[in-house]
Amino acid sequence: MLYVSIIVELLRARPALAIWIAALLQAAVWTLVPALFYSAPPGDVATVLAVGHQFRLGTYLGPPLAFWLAELAYDLGGLFAVYALSQGCVVVTYWAVFSLGRAIVGAQHAALAVLLMVGISAFTVPTPDFGPVVLTMPLWAMILLHYWLAVGEGRRSYWIVLAVEIALLLLTTYAGLLLVALLLAFTLANGKARAALASSDPWIAALVTLVVMLPHLLWLAGSTEGLLPALSRLRTPEAVGDNFIAWLRQIGLVLAAHAGLAVLVVCAVGWGRARQEPAPVIVRGPVGSFAKAFVYYFAIVPPLAATFLGVLLGTGPVGGLAPLVVLSALAVIVGAGDAVPLHHQRGLIYAWFGLLLVPPLALVLALATLPWLGVDLAVAQPADAMARFFADSFQRRVGSPLPIVAGDARLAGLIALGAPSRPSLLLDAAPEHSPWVTFDDVRAKGAIVVWRSPDTAGVPPPEVLARFPDLTPEVPRAFERKVQGSLPLLRIGWAVIRPQAAPVP
Q: How far apart are the first and last CA of the chain?
């Protein structure tokens, strides 16, 4: 007797609804977990917001769009809005892949592809860490979707949409140049795609892209930061020698990110079944050769090219991992054939929900237990208490709101984020990376300098003293985490730099 679960029936009858339920469930989980359980923002979120608060046309971290959006979200709803913005990017990515898949393999197989994407770790665990990589995901996916509609289906109205999206991608990350190069290479190499160049639409689209990019291009032309220093490293001798092993290591990391997808595929194909059992089959029409070439090309070539460039630059995959693998699941579905049987339905459903729910549950458990094992988690730092204390201390001593924070980049970023005055972050170890504030501003306006203090003496590290030779340290301040466990108190050394000629209250 053929058994079909209600979830498989939903996938057959209402594939779009199944995708929206799955995407919104995932978005809710990864918005609520950091909002409810993190005491400090993850990863580089504090730095992203410190940079975005300046609303500059570009920085050493690249183009400005992700930083601007993060700051706008934070102004509207705090860190909760930033986490929601991250998950909105994931939902848009899923929608774009579903729309592309629906045009190529039909709605039901497209839904299977999106459900498989939950098994790619790049779309789940790292996503609360909003930044250029997270914003690149939906833009990359929408560009592939609208390129297919413009070139694969000949719908000329999408050329302008494609141009604006490419411009937004280039305003998010210089890795967008890689996608542009890959699109151009595919267009020139494929006869059907090459025929699209005969019309005026692609050239008008290129002009629109340049117009949207113009402000950042003008900044880039007069800047010593950003793309050009990175490209210059490609020519250094140390950048091109002995890189094959490093490249293989990066490829291994890309493949490891697909471990959950592999688990879902194994469950679906029924590998290891004791006997043949009837299984529901989801069928589609045949997929054309151009569509197969398009999906396979943009599923395989971007990770290979980005990891190769990453090795030459001495970084990870250029553009981050998530944008590079947006078509991995769709490529699996295209390669699976016109009929996909779903064996081990219960096991498949349990595995899918496990991949969705186990990582956040494990994270919450880690926050509660790892401090007892002596593991200090960055997201467990008491950011709000730190920001309130140092902002109040400066206000009491100087009589004005805290204007600048410097010292330890992570601690200073948290204080700059949480202090009511939203002070500027000075990256004093590399002051060229924070050109919005200088050492002259520190002398004129005053600042708080912070560092990790291993003891109660509070002596500044030598590198901090070298940059601030007249520093007079205060008694270190100790902060308790929500779950202190067996960890020592978080002790922070600090000093107040008074503005020049400022009276003592």
A: 85
Residue 504 placed within a domain = no
pLDDT, tens digit (0-9, with 9 covering 90-100), for 372-423? 998 999 999 999 999 999 999 999 999 899 999 999 999 999 999 999 999 9
Q: Which of 60-64, 123-127, 489-493 has the highest mean pLDDT?
A: 489-493
- pLDDT beyond 70 at 276: no
Q: CA–CA separation, 42 vs 362, rounded Å?
A: 16
Alpha carbon distance 111, 102 (integer Å): 8
Q: Is residue 375 part of a domain?
A: no
Domain that includes residue 318, residue range? 6-365
Average pLDDT, the chain: 87
Reported as type and span, the H/E element at residue 355 is: helix 345-369
**Residue 373 has what DSSP assignment?**
G
Total tally of structural domains belonging to the chain = 2
Q: What are phi and psi of 474, to 5 degrees?
A: -95, 175
Same-domain status, 94 and 13: yes
Question: Measuring CA to CA, how many Å separate 326 from each of 50, 120, 283, 395?
Answer: 29, 9, 23, 48
Q: How far apart are CA 157 and CA 134, in angstroms?
A: 27
| pLDDT for the residue 58 | 80
Give the rounded distance of the alpha carbon of 155 from its chain centre: 31
**CA-based nearest residue to 117, from 333, 287, 316:** 333
- In this structure, the answer to whether residues 268 and 409 fall within a common structural domain is no
Residue with tokens 């032309």: 221
Return d(Cα 335, Cα 19) in angstroms, integer: 21
Q: In what order do the strands lie in the sheet with 404-407?
A: 424-425, 404-407, 447-452, 490-497, 477-479
Alpha carbons 8 and 330: distance in angstroms, whole number? 18
The reported pLDDT for the residue numbered 16 is 92
Q: Is residue 1 part of a domain?
A: no
Q: How far apart are CA 349 and CA 344, in angstroms?
A: 9
pLDDT band at 224 (very low <50, low <70, confident <90, very high): low
Task: Assess contact for 158 and 146: CB atoms under 8 A.
Answer: yes
- The pair of three-digit structure tokens given for residue 113, joined into one six-digit string: 């592809």
Q: Residue 291 half-sphere exposure, CB side, CA atoms within 13 Å?
A: 19
In a domain, 373, yes or no: no
Q: Do the Cβ atoms of 207 and 41 come closer than 8 Å?
A: no
Q: In this structure, what token pair is assigned to residue 298?
A: 């943009």
Torsion angle, alpha carbons of 423, 428, 430, 434, to 10: 20
159 within 8 A of 206, measured Cβ to Cβ: no
Q: How many residues does the chain have?
A: 505
Q: Which two tokens stand for residue 290?
A: 């151009």
